[in-house]
């Protein structure tokens, strides 16, 4: 649609709004703070705008019913708040191609309804918390994990094979090391696997 300018603060008056889709526009930098009045929101899609800033630590306090959060292709920055686990209904989470950094919070393992996690094209670092509280057992519905083009490190442990519903696993262009876990061969639903441009060694499965 290619809307431009600012988003009116009157948006916050739409207290019954369930879905907010502003994809593919060119809004000025920030959204009005009144957006946090929309506590009934289940879907927020702000993909491909010129938006920037940090995610608030109490994001899930404002949006307790959130199921879909898509912020890809903007200029957002900062860390992913550990309080994200309070969005207990979250199913789709995309922060791809922004300027986020820091570590993936361990609390992500508490998002038991999550199906898609897309974090590619940022500056995240550290290890993916695969084995924190048996993450793949908790995230039994996970279908897509995309962390390409970041600075993640560490091994990909055998527990990745416990994410039995994975359809797409994209770990390319990071700093993962060690061997490719044979347990990936247990992911019988997998349709896409990308491991290129890492420091992995040994045989494939």
* H/E element order: EEEEEHEEEEEEHEEEEEE
Question: pLDDT under 50 segments (min length 5)?
Answer: none
**Main structural class:** mainly beta
CATH class: Alpha Beta
Helical segment count: 2
Helix content: under 10%
CATH superfamily: Ribonuclease Inhibitor
Major β-sheet strand ordering: 2-4-6-8-10-12-14-16
The major pleated sheet works out as:
8 strands, parallel
Which architecture per CATH?
A: Alpha-Beta Horseshoe
Supply the number of structural domains.
Answer: 1
Got a strand count?
17
- The proportion of residues in beta strands is 25-35%
List keywords for this structure.
single chain, 205 residues, mainly beta, Leucine-rich repeat, LRR (right-handed beta-alpha superhelix), 7-stranded parallel β-sheet, 2 helices, LRR-RLK
Describe this protein's structure.
- It is a single chain.
- With 205 residues, this protein is mostly beta strands.
- The protein contains 2 helices and 17 strands.
- The strands form 3 sheets. An 8-stranded parallel sheet has the order 2-4-6-8-10-12-14-16, with no helix packed on it. A 7-stranded parallel sheet has the order 5-7-9-11-13-15-17, with no helix packed on it. Strands 1-3 form a two-stranded parallel sheet.
- The mean pLDDT is 90.
- It has one domain: Leucine-rich repeat, LRR (right-handed beta-alpha superhelix) (Alpha-Beta Horseshoe), CATH 3.80.10.
- The chain starts with a strand and ends with a strand.
- Helix content is 4%, strand content 27%.
